[in-house]
Amino acid sequence: xxxxxxxxxxxxxxxxxxxxASVVAVCLPFWVTDLDSEILSVVTxxxxxxxxxVVLVVHLAMRPGMRFxxxxxxxxxxxARTVGAAxxxxxxxxxxxxxxxxxxxxxxxxxxxxxxxAAAAALLVLPLSIVWMVFAxxxxxxxxxxxxxxxxxxxxxxxxxxxxxxxxAWHLPLTLTYALDGxxxxxxxxxxxxxxxxxxxxxxxxxxxxxxxxxxxxAHAVMNTMGQxxxxxxxxxxxxxxxxxxxxxxxxxxxxxxxxxxxxxxRIPILSETSPAWVG
Length: 280
Known about the structure:
mainly alpha
């Protein structure tokens, strides 16, 4: 483990504060007026590009002589690792919801109740994930791209937890907006935040395994599409659960996450930040 570059803590503090402030600024009108949160849903894909924009602006202000795109790890060398990392991402983000549903159903917490057309919807998960990468790229170029390169000397776990914490905090104003508007229960704010922390480890892992941001972009897109598909099409609505069943179900989910992450982090080799392929 190496020391951070002297300017790295200041860069993280400035960009992290700007990222949280920017999303709070977007959400603030919804908190103090009668604006419908449905408007926020429409603009959310554009908001996913805020991390890219903020990190780029801070980079240009603080490190104008450095190559932004190299630090963002948009390369794909070695190609085999990049493809393999995408496969790991797909396996993890499919396995977690499916295993959670299987265990939750076996324990009687939810009912397995596929909606009409669920089979056809399943076939769209991968194509939609590929399309959704357009928006996920805007987030990941900041989080698992530039900031991961910046904090890499901290090692995998420390850098992952720092970035994952900022990532979860960045989402919090959005989920709070839906909760304050009454379109999302407050318990969903908590469960979503914890889910993001677990997901951050998996997304960071494929970045460290490949040295490229692209598997992280793909992982983020699969997370969104597969989660939406599985929990909306295969079981009774989670909103219908009482608090006991709800938290038991998410306890199962977090247990599944812990097991999956324990397995993959032990078995998947990661590139050192000193490797020539670390930033593609």
